[in-house]
Design goal:
Elements lengths: L16 E5 L21 E8 L2 E8 L3 H22 L7 H8 L1 E2 L4 H16 L9 H13 L6 H8 L7 E4 L2 E4 L12 H15 L5 E4 L3 E4 L7 E6 L7 E7 L2 E6 L5 E3 L4 E2 L15 E6 L2 H11 L4 H11 L2 E5 L7 E2 L2
Antiparallel strand pairs: 1-9, 2-3, 3-7, 4-6, 5-6, 7-8, 8-11, 9-10, 11-14, 12-13, 14-15, 15-16
Helix pairs in contact: 1-6, 6-7
Length: about 325
Amino acid sequence: MTQAHATGSTRRRCIGIVAAVSAAAAAPGLLHRAEAGAATPPVTTWQGVALGADAQLRIVHPDRKLAEQLVQRAVAEVRRLEQVFSLYRDDSALVRLNDVGILHDAPGDLTRLLATTLQFCAATGGAFDPTVQPLWELYASAIRAGRPMPRGRPLQAVLARVDWRDVHLDGGDIRLGRPGMRLTLNGIAQGYITDRVTDALRDAGLDHVLVDMGEVRSLAPPQAQPWRVGLAGDDEARTPLATLALREGAVSTSAGAGTVLDARSGLNHIFDPRTGLSATRWRSVSVQAASATTADALSTAFCLMDAQAIGRVAAREDARVWVLAHGASGLRRLA
């Protein structure tokens, strides 16, 4: 089995969704009526795993049978895209690319997402970088062998293979420009899958949907209350620190505490491509954006960026950003 970048682990990140509430829906614990006695259509829910992380899909629709059929179509789309992006499947397109360093006639989803990824790399000054996969493999090997976390020459040797600028797209062909380069798209692929599933449900005629694939994307019709989404920090209890109203938009939260690789050294799953070490600037970063793809990529990159740089990128991407600073008990709005 091919190892994934740490952001593809079972609990990829400290998920920011602690509650999703719509006045037009009802389900114990998460969805409830805003007014007593209001007529509410049933909520059809699927729970599973997408790209190694917990995922949920909730559809509010009066025809439960139709809703169940749409859920199955959505799940089939998730599984199809996993065969493109997964680092856990030996037959995925991304694994084939990593194994040989070049992929001809790559699937359209892979070339489209990789092109978008490289745009975010440039926009964030390289803070977002899909070529950090060798760092995960270096640290994972040390953990399995019970060795100290690599530093010095071993780390520098791996960093020589990390640079998004040596990923080349030419039509349907993808080439990795350095020997030993390997990609992970786990910092953006879940957002992309979330968008694809949401768009497919919209195309099927649904206008009241909440999709949570680790990133959240919502649809709510004008006559309904927007979804209310709670943002958590990085604690185990996932305590809500703020609540957002979402009608059409997406939210993603990244936190180093989502996956701690080595507690003694503080190594977590969000790698700095410049140093090979982990993000420590913020305890968590939450991003609201038009698409889950954007929110996913930016929440990861912003963990490595200072407030001023975050503000510049957020303004260009029309995104809202909240951070949980070390020593703070509440979120701070940055953009």
